[in-house]
């Protein structure tokens, strides 16, 4: 895991203490992945994205932010359903 990935994971853990971060990218390419937390249960998809991106914008430089393609944000139950449907993806 690279330096930026570690920084992102640390930031997310500071806000969501139970979060699981699964990065999905190839070396030298933009960062993407899955974020899984029970705390997303009561949030709409837009609220989840807004909360995560607000945290990233407040704590990462613009150059660092540009390296992030995006994250799919799920609850543990949602990721289980996703994983069952797309076994080779997650």
Give a brief rundown of this model.
This protein is of the alpha+beta class.
The topology string of helices and strands comes to: HEEHHEH
Shape: globular
Low-confidence stretches: none
Share of helical residues: 40-55%
Strand order of the largest sheet: 1-2-3
Report the span from N to C terminus.
17 Å
- Alpha-beta content class: alpha+beta
Average pLDDT confidence is 91
Helix tally equals 4
Whole-number radius of gyration?
13 Å
Beta-strand percent range:
15-25%
Profile the largest sheet: 3 strands, mixed
Q: Count the E strands.
A: 3
Task: Write the SSE topology.
Elements: H1 3-15, E1 20-23, E2 31-36, H2 45-59, H3 62-66, E3 68-74, H4 76-85
Parallel strand pairs: 2-3
Antiparallel strand pairs: 1-2
Overview of the structural elements:
By secondary structure, the protein is an alpha+beta fold. It is built from four helices and three strands, in the order αββααβα. The chain has helices at residues 3-15, 45-59, 62-66, 76-85; strands at residues 20-23, 31-36, 68-74. The protein has a three-stranded mixed sheet with strand order 1-2-3. A hairpin with a 7-residue loop joins strand 1 and strand 2 (31-36). Helix 1 crosses helix 2 (45-59). The chain is globular, with a radius of gyration of 13 Å.
Structure keywords:
90 residues, alpha+beta, 4 helices
